[in-house]
From TrEMBL:
Keywords per UniProt: Cell membrane, Membrane, Symport, Transmembrane, Transmembrane helix, Transport
InterPro entries registered for this protein in UniProt: H+-coupled_symporters, MFS, MFS_dom, MFS_trans_sf, Sugar_transporter_CS
GO molecular-function terms, A-Z: symporter activity
Chief subcellular location: membrane
Descriptive protein name: MFS transporter
Organism of origin: Escherichia coli
CDD domains: MFS_CitA (cd17368)
Alphabetical list of Gene3D superfamilies matching this protein: MFS general substrate transporter like domains
Location within or outside the cell: Cell inner membrane
Similarity comment text for this entry: Belongs to the major facilitator superfamily. Metabolite:H+ Symporter (MHS) family (TC 2.A.1.6) family.
Length: 438
């Protein structure tokens, strides 16, 4: 009778998929809001934290470089937090990443400007972005592993789609906050310069204030996370490293797939709007509106694509996505240069983000499914972070630099197309994963 009672209690404690999704999704959205809100205010940051320059390209390049340098910390975060998650469970790693991301966000919110503190202000901004990079690198592996491992075999696509969907949700929330502040603060204060003076800091404080909710939700998953590796010998870093080497083909192909996803994501979600504001003289609120639209499409589209993954498969969707992004790369910039208008900007963003999202979900799912559980969080975080660090991190920097070097406003299309081709190459060497996880 006791055994039966204990078994019943165990069943009751089994986590529901809805609970796992919500706890993972809220924290993931919060972290990517903290990480990505920098992009919404990069025009202000570029003038406040770097030495004054007569060339507006220089300040913008420095701001994008600061954004990009954080991505080089993501592999480090992936190694440390991913190995921790594989050995001790997903929950503690996911709580830690929220706390760490919030620290970096708070530092940006209170950082002194270049005018106030000189290069100390710049150094504070860079250090904060490095801290955020470590947190983001660790978050993606632990949360993605939790979603994939908690899902029924026939719903892995839908479960895993929440990882990308919440990034879109974070962008949407960031866009709403940016648009709201840009419209309300000048009206409420009677100052047209209030956003540049201090208004841009408000979203960072919002992110910090929401962090305790994310931590609480993830702490509630105490009995819901997959059990950590029991065999201590198998859980050593040497064993993890040897397992990674056994899956080196998956690692290499995964990096190439991630390159295509991250280049397309950061160009379509963030760069089009900033590029239009800087080079086509569109008002800043249209840039925010484009990012807001991109976030909505990513959120809704990712969930729909996740369901498609469960019925159609991974590789077909990735191939269609990559072909369409490649074909639309140059025309998207050409149309905006020759027919500049808010309507054209929103149309281009809608099309490019839709095709990008079509490939984003199956790429993340495919990589995680091809890795065994003992190194899934570490392997996925490492693969995705390396791909992001190589191409995605400085996507906006290189896109802007290509305009300077080629003296053409359509030059970023070459960067977008190149990353897409590398991703298509990897598709030749990967197979559809088995239904049962390793």
């Amino acid at each position: 009778m006791t055994a039966i009672v204990n078994e019943t209690v165990s069943v009751k404690k089994k986590p529901s998929g809805r609970r796992v999704i919500f706890a993972s999704a809220f924290g993931n959205a919060l972290e990517f809001f903290d990480f990505g809100v920098y992009n919404f205010f990069v025009v202000y940051i570029s003038t406040l934290f770097f030495p004054p320059s007569a060339d507006h390209n220089v300040a913008l390049l420095l701001a994008f470089a600061t954004f990009g340098v954080s991505f080089f910390m993501r592999p480090l975060g992936g190694i440390i937090v991913g190995a921790w998650a594989d050995r001790f469970g997903r929950k503690p790693a996911m709580v830690f990443t929220i706390a760490l991301m919030s620290l970096g966000t708070l530092m940006i919110g209170i950082a002194p400007t270049y005018e106030t503190a000189g290069y100390w202000g710049t150094a504070t901004l860079v250090l904060a972005r490095l801290i955020q990079g470590v947190a983001a690198g660790g978050e993606v592996g632990a949360s993605m592993s939790l979603l994939v491992e908690s899902a029924p075999a026939n719903r892995r696509g839908f479960y895993s789609s929440w990882s990308l969907a919440t990034q879109g949700l974070a962008t949407t929330f960031g866009g709403v906050v940016a648009l709201g502040l840009s419209a309300w603060l000048p009206f409420a204060t009677g100052s047209e310069t209030v956003m540049a003076e201090w208004g841009w800091r408000v979203p960072f404080f919002i992110g910090v204030l929401l962090a305790p909710i994310g931590c609480w939700l993830r702490l509630s998953l105490e009995n819901d996370v997959p059990e950590p590796v029991r065999n201590k010998k198998a859980a050593t870093s040497e064993s993890a490293f040897s397992l990674l080497l056994q899956h080196k083909a998956t690692i290499v192909n995964g990096v190439l797939l991630a390159i295509g996803s991250t280049v397309a994501t950061y160009i379509s979600l963030f760069y089009y709007g900033t590029w239009a504001a800087k080079y086509l003289a569109m008002p800043q609120h249209y840039s925010h509106a484009a990012m807001l639209l991109a976030g909505v499409i990513t959120f809704v589209g990712a969930l729909l694509v996740g369901m498609l993954c469960d019925s159609v498969g991974r590789k077909k969707l990735i191939l269609i996505s990559r072909v369409m992004v490649l074909l639309c790369s140059w025309p998207s910039f050409w149309l905006l240069v020759n027919y500049p208008s808010p309507g054209m900007l929103l149309t281009v963003v809608f099309v490019m983000v839709s095709f990008t999202t079509l490939g984003g979900v199956p790429v993340m799912l495919l990589i995680s499914e091809l890795l065994p559980k003992r190194i899934r969080a570490l392997g996925f975080a490492l693969v995705y972070s390396i791909g992001v660090a190589i191409f995605g991190s400085f996507a906006q920097y290189f896109a802007t630099q290509s305009i300077v070097l080629l003296d053409s406003l359509t030059a970023p299309a070459w960067y977008l197309g190149g990353g897409t081709l590398l991703s298509m190459l990897a598709l030749l060497y990967v197979k559809e994963p088995a239904k049962e996880l390793q």
